[in-house]
Design a protein that fits this description.
about 375 residues; 6 helices; about 10% helix
């Protein structure tokens, strides 16, 4: 009769639970149980002490083949990322800033290979469009406990762009397109190179890329080609019953316009007298029944946008041109130590015009350069 060690039964129980264990030989005591996962391929970010989401560069390209910020917008951890279409009061110049959980770009830390980057605007955030996206290996995001290591600028989390510092060869990229209304063209092209020397101890990588978006603006491109642009807004309900505010299309202010006008007390003969572009003729501002000329929202809903020039300055898509260059030279002193130097050069330019009812109070004293009451400039 064979003797079976009692500890073998425990090992069998572990095996039935899906854990690979080593069995002791017959008649011997089991001294150690080693659990292995040699057949499990761990994705990047799975061996970290904090929860990390890692996305490979190939996956990012499939999520958004244009700018890197378009790819990040598809990830659920990001919310309200800024892009080239936003100017943020003229203080960001088309920069693309990541915003985790919508807490704020200044509370989301952006790293390149685990190292901090110099801020690209006064808000303290980094324009990710300047990073060498063609040399990315993967992008990691940390959302929990990051501020304990990095400080208050990582309260929302950390976005870490990992470079392929051993990139080998040459990669070219070029693409272009436009809307099906034959406007809003976009272009992107770039090159990435890399090569190793001295038995792979010295490695040089570099990239250059250019991205361009054409403006979509003007009444013809925005209002006439796109009938869905109705410029909806809240207006004062003219009826004494019902809600105080109504949602209506084609909303324009009544205390602000593109020419000189008088704003006086309701019922005053001068109230809402509007001059034409010459500054010599004036007439009473027409009221179309939805909203309120004086008081309330100081706005009204028009039957058609052809009755106003209020939105003639609007840009549906900002014009943007951005170029960036990157270079890195690394030398392996040993298996664990590398001496490297790297640099980034970037330039971008944005053209955007926007005029909207929410800006009325802040900009109601705006005077256009062609106003008839401005003195003519003296000849040189």
């Amino acid at each position: 009769m064979k003797t079976v060690n009692v500890r073998i039964a425990a090992a069998v129980a572990l095996a039935l639970a899906g854990v690979q264990a080593g069995f002791a030989a017959e008649g011997e005591e089991l001294e150690e149980v080693q659990v292995t996962g040699s057949r499990i391929t761990l994705a990047p970010g799975m061996s970290t002490p904090t929860p990390v989401t890692s996305v490979l560069a190939e996956e990012m390209e499939s999520l958004g083949p244009n700018q890197i910020i378009d790819s990040l917008n598809a990830l659920p951890v990001f919310r309200n990322n800024s892009n080239a279409n936003q100017s943020l009061g003229g203080q960001n110049s088309g920069g693309a800033n990541v915003n985790m959980h919508g807490i704020g770009a200044n509370r989301t830390l952006t790293l390149l290979d685990g190292r901090r980057l110099v801020a690209t605007n006064r808000f303290g955030s980094v324009d990710v469009n300047i990073l060498p996206s063609m040399l990315f290996r993967n992008v990691e995001t940390v959302t929990g406990g990051a501020s304990a290591s990095y400080g208050t600028d990582a309260v929302a989390g950390v976005t870490n762009f990992i470079l392929d510092t051993k990139f080998e060869g040459v990669e070219l990229k070029a693409q272009m397109g436009e809307t099906f209304r034959n406007d809003g063209g976009n272009k992107e092209y770039g090159i990435a190179v890399g090569h190793s020397f001295m038995d792979n101890r010295l490695h040089v990588i570099g990239s250059w890329s250019h991205n361009q978006l054409d403006r979509i603006e003007g009444v013809e491109s925005t209002n006439q080609k796109r009938s869905y642009l109705k410029h909806w807004g809240y207006v004062t309900n003219p009826s004494a019953t019902g809600p105080a505010l109504l949602t209506a299309p084609n909303v324009v202010p009544t205390d602000f316009g593109t020419t000189i006008q008088f704003n006086a007390a309701a019922g005053n003969a001068l109230d809402r007298l509007v001059f034409d572009g010459s500054g010599q003729q004036f007439s009473k501002m027409p009221f179309y029944g939805v909203g309120r000329l004086n008081g309330g929202c100081n706005c009204q809903s028009l039957p058609s946008l052809d009755l106003t020039q209020m939105y003639q300055d609007n840009s549906l898509q900002a014009g943007y041109k951005g170029s960036t260059g990157f270079g890195r030279v690394g030398f392996d002193l040993n298996d664990n130590t590398e001496l490297y130097v790297q640099g980034i050069w970037a330039s971008n330019h944005q053209v955007v015009r926007w005029q909207n009812v929410p800006l009325v109070q802040a900009w109601q004293s705006r005077i256009y350069a062609d106003n008839a009451y401005l003195p003519r400039p003296r000849p040189p």
